[in-house]
Design brief:
This protein has about 475 residues and is an alpha/beta fold. It has twelve helices and 14 strands. The strands form three sheets. Strands 1-7-6-5-4-2-3 form a seven-stranded mixed beta sheet, with helices on both faces. A four-stranded mixed beta sheet has the order 11-12-14-13, with helices on one face. Strands 8-9-10 form a three-stranded antiparallel beta sheet.
Length: about 475
């Protein structure tokens, strides 16, 4: 079962039909005046009108890019360049897609300033906190419509009002929501990606409102209003537009169905699997995404076991990244960055498939945890005379330091302190998150040398009755 629609959705049947037809009718250069060129131009114009209508834009505000990532990068860089006389200050949330973060890094390296808006434990920004970071020299603000890892919907309308009052343009990354939900109002620039809604890969959308200053960061090209250089893929764009219209037409009915299935997962997983936290805003979220964190589990191992059982899911765990760094989204939320499973249901997901997932998950998680020697739920009866316990987890990658903490915290009495020595940077995020989930007190960080370590840090945990 394919449960990773947030990464890419299966090709919609309408997209397949439109692509096949457009390969025959729209293969020519739409910039040429001969008959086949005019035919391709008619198809391209019709596709642009369709996308504009769904996104709430004018046709001449829409440009097609090679991907959603390219749309975000061109949108950010073009708006920053266009507003350079105002200043060089960029504001974005802490949970934006990596395409935003990479542009922000480049902007900062080039002398610009960047402010990052924090999020709450549900992954949502506070509009007031966002507005407080806007300054007279703020050239651009960026806020996603909904998060790609946990599905939390952001208060775009409220932030847009604050940006408008401050005269700051707002770029909204609508990659996860376009086609599924209404496009939020108030945006100055909007980006989207066709393969997220069931269109073909290789088509992104960049919309720039009339009156918004925009200067292409790339050499000028005659195509796509001068915003995106290069030859356009007319057949793919036609298929993308057709599938966008189709999924939007069926969205209300299908969203309600998928929302009910996701609610079933959200409610039953914590009851079926011990030591699990469902993350993301429980109410203000996309209807098809649910993410949960399993304590004491290596996310990559669990995903592999789920794959063997026939389920394709994703994870925000650090172990699934080629750089072995924790998910910046989960870290910003203050939740566990290990053992995460993201389930994102595509259109047409059957109820029986979700039930089967819920049936196999508990045994798979138990199997992954079995070699660790954990007795879950963790026993709280044991006490010890010593009120301080030092656990040497140096040289061990997370989640092993957290696992050792969970296994041995019962060795100290209520109010006793466990010190975990660790040199994996993920421990700095995961140990406080574990304390929050289990009800223990995280007492801070100290040099490992204070507790006999030769490297790394010491993480102090005070045992509380849970």
């Amino acid at each position: 079962m394919y449960f990773d629609a947030a990464s890419t959705a299966p090709l919609h049947p309408v997209a397949r039909q439109a692509l096949t037809a457009a390969l025959d009718e729209g293969w020519a250069d739409p910039a040429r005046l001969y008959r086949s060129g005019r035919q391709a131009r008619m198809l391209l114009d019709a596709a642009r009108e369709t996308v504009a209508a769904v996104l709430g834009a004018r046709a001449d505000e829409i440009a097609f890019t090679a991907s959603g990532t390219q749309a975000v990068q061109l949108g950010l860089l073009g708006a920053l360049t266009g507003h350079r006389r105002r200043g060089a200050h960029l504001v974005h949330s802490a949970v934006e897609h990596s395409s935003v973060l990479h542009v922000a890094e480049r902007h900062e390296a080039g002398g610009g300033e960047v402010s990052v808006v924090p999020v709450d434990r549900g992954g949502r920004v506070d509009p007031a906190a966002f507005g407080a970071l806007l300054r007279p020299d703020t050239a651009l603000a960026a806020l996603q419509s909904a998060n790609h890892e946990v599905g939390t919907v952001q208060p775009v309308g409220e932030v847009a009002d604050l940006c408008s009052s401050a005269g700051v343009p707002l770029l909204v990354d609508a990659a996860q929501s376009a086609g599924r939900t209404d496009v939020p109002a108030g945006w100055s620039l909007l980006t989207a990606s066709a393969h997220k809604w069931g269109g073909p890969a290789g088509v992104g959308v960049l919309a720039v409102r009339k009156g918004v200053r925009y200067s292409s960061p790339l050499p000028t090209d005659e195509r796509e209003g001068g915003r995106v250089p290069g030859y356009v893929n007319v057949p793919a764009i036609v298929a993308a537009a057709a599938s966008l219209r189709a999924v939007r037409a069926e969205a209300d009915r299908e969203n309600a169905r998928l929302h009910a299935l996701v609610e079933r997962i959200r409610a039953r997983v914590p009851r079926l699997v011990p030591e699990v936290e469902v993350v993301g805003d429980p109410v203000r979220r996309l209807p098809h995404i649910v993410t949960f964190s399993c304590l004491y589990v290596d996310g990559e191992v669990l995903l592999t076991e789920l794959d063997r059982a026939g389920f394709a899911v994703s994870s925000g765990s650090s172990c699934t990244s080629s750089t072995l760094t924790p998910s910046h989204v989960l870290a910003a939320m203050g939740v566990l960055t290990e053992g995460n499973v993201r389930v994102s249901l595509p259109y047409g997901t059957a109820e029986a498939d979700v039930d089967r997932f819920l049936a196999v998950l508990p045994d798979l998680v138990a199997g992954v945890r079995a070699p660790l020697g954990l007795d879950l739920p963790a026993p709280e009866a044991a006490t010890a005379s010593a009120s301080l316990l030092v656990i040497d987890a140096l040289g061990k990658r997370c989640p092993l330091p957290v696992i050792e903490l969970a296994k041995r915290i019962g060795e100290v009495p209520e109010g006793g302190t466990v010190v975990v020595l660790a040199d994996d940077e993920a421990a700095r995020l995961d140990i406080p998150a574990w304390c929050g989930m289990r009800g223990h007190e995280y007492a801070g960080e100290a040099p490992a040398a204070d507790y006999g370590g030769d490297r790394g840090s010491a993480y102090l945990v005070v045992r509380r009755t849970t």
